[in-house]
Design a protein that fits this description.
Helix content is 52%, strand content 13%. By secondary structure, it is an alpha/beta fold.
């Protein structure tokens, strides 16, 4: 296979068994290549700078620098890498933290191997990969008011109302453009609008 089609990956997990299992799984695929592994957040950042991977598959809980801190640092530095969080915890808080931190996807360690492989390929192709439950609580965060915007959606809407583009919003909030598009789809649905102009108008009417 042509090297241009190979997805280069850095893995980060503080459990050696998980790390080696993932490495073996990915390297068995002709289009995937693990170029480095890391057992803590500091080594992960070093590996990203050194190897410039296409995708990082990382755990949230790691020593020295946890996964969420790594996420924020990667986005703050505007490192051109897509990030899949692979966690043992599928609770809403972990998934929300990963999304708000700028992850491009979230997978569970208990998922079948095929789902993890598919998630990496989809993220490398520019798509977001989050479990359906994320879309449910993003769309209906409050039982009292199903149309209430989340704190992050309010931030995105305010920047839309200022006339900022998706890349500009992403740069301001240290989030990927895909994540901004995800938030926009949800807030458009909640506001009952179809475009940025209508969303901005609603924002200004509320202010």
């Amino acid at each position: 296979m042509n090297d241009a089609k190979i997805i280069r990956i850095v893995l980060a997990d503080d459990h050696a068994l998980v790390l080696e299992g993932l490495r073996a799984l990915l390297n068995a695929e002709p289009d995937l290549r693990v170029v480095a592994t890391a057992t803590d957040g500091e080594r992960l950042i070093e590996a990203i700078h050194r190897f410039k991977p296409d995708v990082v598959a990382m755990d949230i809980q790691m020593p020295y620098m946890d996964g969420l801190t790594c996420l924020r640092l990667i986005r703050t530095e505007n490192l051109p890498v897509r990030i899949l969080v692979i966690s043992a915890f599928g609770d809403a808080q972990s998934m929300r933290a990963a999304l708000d931190g700028g992850a491009d996807g979230f997978a569970l360690k208990t998922d079948p191997p095929e789902m993890t492989l598919a998630a990496i390929r989809q993220i490398a192709a520019g798509r977001m990969v989050f479990p359906d439950v994320v879309r449910r609580w993003m769309t209906h965060p409050s039982a009292d008011d199903p149309n209430a915007l989340s704190e992050r959606e309010e931030e995105v809407l305010a920047l839309v109302a200022e006339g900022k583009s998706n890349p500009q919003i992403g740069a301001t909030l240290n989030l990927s453009e895909n994540t901004i598009k995800f938030h926009l789809r949800n807030l458009f649905a909640k506001l009952g609008v179809t475009n940025r102009t209508e969303a901005a108008a609603k924002y200004h009417r509320r202010s």
